Known about the structure:
16% strand; nine-stranded mixed sheet; globular; alpha+beta; Ribonuclease Rh, Chain A; single chain
Amino acid sequence: MGRRCTLWLTFGALLFSTQWLDVISSTIDRSSEESYEDNAKVIKSIEQDSLDFFSNEKSNEDTSVEHEDEDHDFDILIFTQQWPVTTCYHWREEDSTHACVLPEKKEFWTIHGVWPTKLGHMGPSFCNKSADFDLDQLDQILANLKTYWPTIDGQQKLGYFWKHEWLKHGTCAASLEELDNELKYFQRGLAWREQYLMSNILGSAGIHPDSNSTVIALQRAIVQSLGKNPSIHCVYDNKRDMSYLEEIRICFTKQFELTDCDGVLPGDAVPIVYPGGTVITNCHISKPIHYPSNVPPTIRRMEKKWRFPVVNAFKLVQFIMWFTL
């Protein structure tokens, strides 16, 4: 009788312990995930404040809310070229079902936009609420737009991206006679890409896809070629602890002359002074920046670790009892 009672007490203790182990395991898993995410946020915040680490949560265009600005005046035009491989990767990380349409050529930068900008401010944007977009006005340059100013989003209808750029930015640029209609606006972007193609500028400094560089090396290559300070933007992948080059922005006066991007408020980028100059960026200032030739594979969350099931513990105890009785 005493032996049987001891065995049942042992069984009860084991069952109670395994249930608690299951609860603790579940709690640890959840807390580890939450701790990982919380730590990533804290690290991101601290390093941004210290100007040592910068992460781009939303690199597309700027992070301003789309609204109509009361003041439509602007000081400069920002011309943005994007590296489509990184843009696609950024979208796929947000939604693994996202479809991208990438250029066939390997070393091929595309246009994101021509953005009128007031120094120290975001925008202006949506300067003409009665404006419309007429795709037919772009017939003569449609082939070039599809090639050099394409939508990377494979789910968008033809013209949707250009409509957005025109209504948000083109309607503000239209205050200049040289940009006062759709055709002039998009022709200007195409002409700037041909003249200031980033693959040529970076390539002349020996920087090509499938390489790692620092943001300072990228900035120096551009300044050496253009003589003006750009704004350089990255996407940070906290799963890989790696920054990917996504966009490079150069600036022009209203007379269409190159100028420094100093004084621009480009979303999450900030000016960082280093010995020899100032770089405007959201990229990690001291770690390598990857310039990928292919879209990196997405990293899915790891499955929860195997836990010791209560049912198996019960069967084990039953076997012990049977064996010892």
